[in-house]
Design brief:
This protein is mostly beta strands. The protein is 0% helix and 62% strand.
C-alpha cells in the first residue's frame, strides 16, 4: 500500500510564502512524475506543477515565476515553494504521484490535500 502525506499549508498574507511537502511511503519500486494540483471552492481541480524523476518541471501559466517544484528522490518527497502568493492562490492543494509498486504495476496516487489560504 502506498500513502502520500502532505504538510505545510496554512494562512498567509498576500505577498507571503509557503512551502508544501509531500512524502510517499509504502511498497514503492519507482516514483515517476510527481506534482501538485489545486482546487478552489466552486472550481475544478487544476494542475499547478509537475516534476519528472529526472527533474524536468512544468508549471501552469498562473504560477510561473512564483512557484518552484522540486523533489528529493532519496526521501520520496516532492516540494512546492510558493512565493508572492495571491488571494487567487487560495485552494486545497493535492499532491499526485505516478508510482510503481512491487508486483502491482503503476498507478496514480493522491494525497489527502492541504489548505492554503491567502488573505488580501
Amino acid at each position: 500500500q502506498v500513502q502520500l502525506v502532505e504538510s505545510g499549508g496554512g494562512l498567509v498574507q498576500a505577498g507571503g510564502s509557503l512551502r508544501l511537502s509531500c512524502a510517499a511511503s509504502g511498497s514503492i519500486f519507482r516514483i515517476n512524475t510527481m506534482g501538485w494540483y489545486r482546487q478552489a471552492p466552486g472550481k475544478q481541480r487544476e494542475l499547478v506543477a509537475t516534476i519528472t524523476s529526472g527533474g524536468s518541471t512544468y508549471y501552469a501559466d498562473s504560477v510561473k515565476g512564483r512557484f518552484t517544484c522540486s523533489r528529493d528522490n532519496a526521501k520520496n518527497t516532492v516540494y512546492l515553494q510558493m512565493n508572492s502568493l495571491k488571494p487567487e492562490d487560495t485552494a486545497i492543494y493535492y499532491c499526485n504521484a505516478g508510482i510503481s509498486t512491487y508486483g502491482l504495476g503503476r498507478s496514480d496516487y493522491w494525497g489527502q490535500g492541504t489548505q492554503v489560504t491567502v488573505s488580501s
